[in-house]
Amino acid sequence: MYSLLLAIIYIAFVSLGLPDSLVGAGWPVMHQDLEVPVAFAGILAMIIAGGTIVSSLASERVTRRFGAGVVTAVSVGLTAAALVGFSVSGSFWMLCLWAVPYGLGAGAVDAALNNYVAQHYAARHMNWLHSFWGVGASISPFIMSYALTAGLGWSSAYRVVGLLQAVLTVVLIASVPLWGRGNPVVPPGRTDDADEVRETGTGPGAHVPLAHALRIPGVVSILIAFFAYCALESTSILWASTFLVADRDVPPATAAAFASLFLLGITGGRFLAGFFADRVGDRQLIRGGFATVGLGLAMLALPVETDVLALAGLVIAGLGCAPIYPAIIHSTPVNFGRRNSQAIIGIQMAAAYTGSTLAPPLFGVVSAWAGMWIFPLFLAALVALGLLMSERLNRVVAHRLDRVPARS
Q: Residue 210: which residues within 8 A CB-CB, separation 6 or more?
């Protein structure tokens, strides 16, 4: 049963990635059919991001009451309904309406699934699961491409993905009894719930208010680190190709290919990281990931004649990004306790979506003022911020574990 549930969770992570790239893949055609400016994609993105932030912050209370299995099933059902709603929308305001459950479902399932995996499965599975998210995010543009090439229209792509989500919803509903099984990860230095209650002030089954979670030592540091990482990732995905063309005179087709390799580097890197994640540990994965991104950015910034270093640097940066997100999530129960992990992962998801939403347009403003050459420096500042905050958390956790008395 343990393996069966794990297989279902892997499928759920593919499903989690499927809707994420549909809007971007179809928008060049969608905005023409709906007769709205191309910039209106930003409105949809903001509505979806707002929904994910709200549901992420509410995920702890909801998941504690109904359980991760029920929350995951309902959330995937919400995204399925939203995608089918997109497929029958004939106007932009209808898309905005359906974008609300689209975002609410995505945020809740993201927080619930990540916390469940962090508590019940090894670090290798966290990396492989997030690699499967990349598979889903890579598949949906091909679904959209086929629908448009075959003359079926963008709405058919949403319908197909929505129906796939609906099938998964049925599977998840059937699997709800399995979600109560498994042995949660016990953080080093703690052997029972009593230690955790003394340290955090929360008892078994107790709701962890947002204000309380933010006061736990180290939480603000990891939120800033997570914000910085997701800002780095989303800015790279959106602006890397433009930087290569505008600043390095790379042909647009080549730039687009290597920009896509950044994403493939993340997906492939997470798959590879899974083979040694348990031996290396989350802390070293985060530290090494940020350092590798820094190396890639240095290669990207070097003022040399050839484009080879810049293109290779972008791929290396993608590989460096790969383990950071999964390792931050997986280390949460160890760093802050199992009773607090759902609340803190929910806040982390909110910080992630905030960084992903705000950083790309911020860079657009900065680059319009300073020039596109500043792209590697902007990303390097985010790397430095993320590494600084994650190291600060490490010191806080080490100090806290030193104060926990050993038990025989």
A: 57, 343, 347
| pTM metric for this prediction | 0.76
Q: Pinpoint the residues of the chain covered by CATH 1.20.1250.20.
A: 2-184, 197-403
> How many CA atoms, within 13 angstroms, populate the side-chain half-sphere of residue 408?
0
Q: What are residue 389's phi and psi, to 5 degrees?
A: -70, -35
Alpha helices (H) along 331-403: 332-336, 338-370, 375-403
Among 44, 12, 27, 22, smallest CA distance to 161 is for: 22
Task: Give the class (CATH, top level) of 197-403.
Answer: mainly alpha
pLDDT tens digits for 235-251? 888 788 878 887 877 77
Say if residue 3 is exposed, middle or buried (CB neighbours under 10 Å; 0-12, 13-18, 19+). exposed
The SS3 of residue 150 is coil
CATH number of 2-184: 1.20.1250.20
Q: At what angle do helices 375-403 and 282-301 cross, to 10 degrees?
A: 160
Q: How many CB atoms lie within 10 A of CB 167?
A: 13
pLDDT tens figures, 53-100 = 888 777 777 777 788 788 888 888 888 999 999 888 888 888 899 989
Number of H helices, E strands in the chain: 18, 0
Q: Tell whether the torsion through CA atoms of 200, 202, 207 and 211 is positive or negative.
A: negative
Burial class (CB in 10 A: 0-12, 13-18, 19+), 399: exposed
